[in-house]
């Protein structure tokens, strides 16, 4: 699906960038939680697949790369805030085992719904 997947890591997070035929097609920005209560948690801050690259499984490949990255670091949980009004996002995250930690509070285009996935250690 993608030609290259680049992973840039730092102390506070990582950026995964996927290209198709040499063109940027998708990226995910990840943040490692630093507080003692959140240690071992990764937060998906941004997850983007360009419209021209959608419908070919690129989002699934990128999510699989995120899960592999988290497991390589012994991350215990992954969290994200997804558009609560968008059934496609809800379905996408649910396919990977994410559960909704709070119901969507609004159908507003700016509302978000938190989701979480616990990984086996």
Description:
- The protein is of the alpha+beta class.
- 20% of the residues lie in helices and 40% in strands.
- The protein is built from 2 helices and 7 strands, in the order E-E-E-E-H-E-H-E-E.
- The protein has helices spanning 58-72, 87-95; strands at 4-9, 13-20, 23-32, 41-49, 77-83, 99-100, 112-118.
- It has a 7-stranded mixed beta sheet with strand order 1-2-3-4-5-7-6, covered by helices on one side.
- The radius of gyration is 14 Å and the shape is globular.
- The chain starts with a strand and ends with a strand.
Structural class, by secondary structure, is: alpha+beta
Assembly context of the chains: single chain
Helix content range of the residues, please?
10-25%
SSE succession: EEEEHEHEE
Cα shape: globular
Summarize the main sheet.
Answer: 7 strands, mixed
In percent, how much strand structure appears in the residues? Answer: 35-45%
Total strand segments: 7
Average of the residue pLDDT scores: 85
């Amino acid at each position: 699906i993608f030609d290259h997947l680049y992973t840039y890591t730092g102390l506070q997070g990582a950026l995964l960038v996927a290209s198709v035929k040499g063109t940027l097609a998708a990226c995910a920005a990840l943040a490692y939680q630093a507080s003692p209560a959140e240690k071992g948690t990764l937060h998906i801050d941004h997850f983007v697949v360009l419209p021209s690259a959608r419908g070919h499984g690129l989002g699934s490949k990128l999510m699989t790369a995120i899960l592999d990255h988290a497991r390589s670091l012994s991350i215990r949980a992954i969290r994200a805030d997804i558009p609560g009004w968008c059934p496609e996002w809800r379905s996408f995250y649910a396919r990977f085992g994410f559960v909704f930690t709070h119901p969507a509070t609004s159908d507003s285009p700016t509302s978000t719904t938190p989701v979480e996935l616990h990984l086996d250690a």
